Amino acid sequence: MAIFNIKKREIECKIVYYGPGRCGKTTNLEYIFKAYKKQVEGEMVSVNTEGDRTLFFDFLPIGLGKIKGCEVKIQLYTVPGQVQYSSTRKLVLRGVDGVIFVADSLEVRREKNMISLKDLQQNLKEYGISLFKIPLVIQHNKRDLAEQGFPLMSIEQMERDLNRQLKVPSFPASAFTGQGVGATLKECMKLTLKSLQKEMQIG
Amino acid sequence: MNIVENIKALLKEAGLYHSMGLLSEAMGKYKKAVEMIEDNEQLKSRTNLIDGISKKINLLEKDMHKVEAAADKPEVSAKVQDLIKKLFTVAEDKNQDAVALDGAIALAKFGQHERALLEFKELLAKDSVRVVAAKNIIRCHMANTSVDAAVDQYEQWLSSDLFVPGELNKLRFFLESLMKKEGVEKKLLPAETPAATPEPTIEMPEVEEAEIAVLEIEEDEDHDDEVLDINSIGITLDSGPRKGDIVELDVSFQSGNVISLLITHTDTDLIELFSVGETLHNIQFYSSIAMFGGSGIVDTKTHIESGPRRGDYSIDLKVVGT
User: This protein's superkingdom (chain A) (predicted)?
Assistant: First the structure.
């Protein structure tokens, strides 16, 4: 849940990168940390375990400056992708305002993408949030591997697998090269802020 | 694609997946490559190829083992623990103890049980969060150490005076339910409500009979302080047409053992009953904590000359025997 500080005229919201293990969530944040230095408001914190796998979460605070006279701050988180860290994923999702689902384009990871999306739906449901209502963007990551001849799923197939019902904005990307990383985040921030604005008007 | 190219592609994929940490996918590709080599006898240097792949499989197995052996929730640095507290403390309460409790709960949820335990133990000193902190200590022991550690902790509290019996019983129920979930059926000692401690007998020094007379306390005629606050009285009418009826009268004022009653001018039977100096027996005195029988002497009987109760009577009754 976003925090509104009326006195300081400040909004702080939370965007979570979700997806199967090793799909590139941390790489997304690392790229943002390097490429958007002006917006970054502090250090990126990663809590990793064996083999550089995210143990608890990665955290990166960024600032968007003033929008309509209001200071906008965004906290970016990643969840641990490994199946066994389900309870941690749920903890990190608490109070989420927007989600970026990072899907792995490798053919061998097709099933894992779908399992992870289901897991996201379940965890959100436990907080009373619908996957169909939360600001959500899908990123088809690792598209750069096609150039090296690795078997990737087509975007069409990935859309059919993951976005047939959701019909949310999606972006092909390579977190390794940075392609599509900014566009994905920008779209999610736009959706999140719109949703918060709507919430404030209703409230 | 010929067989050699197929095998090369599989090995390239396997290598990439290994480097990306997709270990089971890498293993699948290596094994498929080995199968293809074994199935094609015309391939040159088959044994060398299989040996080379076996070495890669061994390395992969070591990495898989490391990942499997890694602790689910290891203790992290104090800096990261502070960040966990900062980011995952939900309480926005101004009550500092509630915020501190929430911070410790966040640590426990992320498996940082050692520090969480220390913080919960500190919170045992705070009245408002003591029981919740204690429940979380039990939970930490159950998750991090053992059922026995949780039971030991409960037993320590049982023999200390940190908790009142009601709180101890709450903790006992909580621990028993957690143990039940773990499949441990164990009944714990309940907290006993302390029996009323008999007042110690004052040992009097042995004295001579002569001295007893001296020690005898003089009976005080005015035991004002001994009379309870009386709310109302019940008087049985023993004459007139309402003979035998019990009339209840509210006490309008009390000073020591003298109570004031108001009687309306229309209640002639009662007005006659209260003659100054007369002792009334069989009076029921009702206080908020007890009801008792006794006697009273009519001290004064005043006709009210002015005010809203003009014409009524005010009776002062001295409680003498209860």
Answer: Bacteria
